[in-house]
Amino acid sequence: EVQLVESGGGLVQPGGSLRLSCSASGFTFSSYAMYWVRQAPGKGLEYVLAISSNGGSTFYADSVKGRFTISRDNSKNTLYLQMSSLRAEDTAVYYCVKVMRASTISYCFDYWGQGTLVTVSS
Amino acid sequence: DIVMTQSPDSLAVSLGERATINCKSSQSVLYSSNTKNYLAWYQQKPGQPPKLLIYWASTRESGVPDRFSGSGSGTDFTLTISSLQAEDVAVYYCQQYYTSATFGQGTKLEIK
């Protein structure tokens, strides 16, 4: 059974930093591109970052470019999101998401974690 | 970036009736080399992550009831629920995965 379990969310002050983790199991993690998708309270879904299966390619939404970094450790089956210079508008549930097809970054998402809430507030 | 626009923003349908949600992309998501539309539909219930319903615009994900169907090509797409059940109350999102990933704003489906 595929499982994606996010951790690391919490309350952080504006300008602060936070690192999210996503522990993956039930599939060959190193074969799949992964995404972080966020959802502000009561709002829709927003793609934030993506990373290829081997970590060699990363992609960023304009809203987080220069502030957020995506990475992965395939030996630990773990995806990371390093967030810095956080703003109030970054407040959201952050989902770790798996693409449906191996070795392809542009694909639909077949598994989502339960999400972890990041609140940026003073 | 490809912009996805859904209509309506909310919809109330009687149990057993048909529900139709539309999605329009700002540019075609049809990839000519494989003639596939890079368009998916998701269902999100309160407090839950989204669930994949449809991909390639019309392919139902395993386990999804056959009352859910997707259609369309190029820039205009439709999600249809043929006979609304109480458990279908949710927010529905379309998503293009032709370049990166962008979502529509969502359509809230309720029981009339």
Describe the model.
Chain A is 0% helix and 50% strand. Chain A has strands at residues 3-7, 10-12, 18-25, 34-39, 45-51, 58-60, 68-73, 78-83, 92-99, 109-112, 116-120. In chain A, strand 5 and strand 6 form a beta hairpin. The N and C termini of chain A lie far apart (40 Å). In chain B, a hairpin with a 3-residue loop joins strand 7 (51-55) and strand 8. In chain B, the strands form 3 sheets. In chain B, strands 2, 6, 7, 8, 11, 12 and 13 form a 7-stranded mixed β-sheet that branches. Chain B is globular and about 40 Å long. At the A-B interface, strand 5 and strand 10 of A face strand 7 and strand 12 of B.
| Secondary structural class of chain B | mainly beta
What is the residue-averaged pLDDT of chain B? Answer: 97
Q: Count of helices of chain B?
A: 0
> What does the largest sheet of chain B look like?
7 strands, mixed
Outline the biggest β-sheet of chain A: 7 strands, mixed
The number of strands of chain A is: 11
Mean pLDDT value of chain A: 97
Straight-line distance between termini of chain B: 36 Å
Work out the helix count of chain A: 0
Shape of chain A: globular
Shape of chain B: globular
Strand content of chain B: over 45%
Rg from Cα of chain A: 13 Å
Helix content of chain B: under 10%
What oligomeric state is this? heterodimer
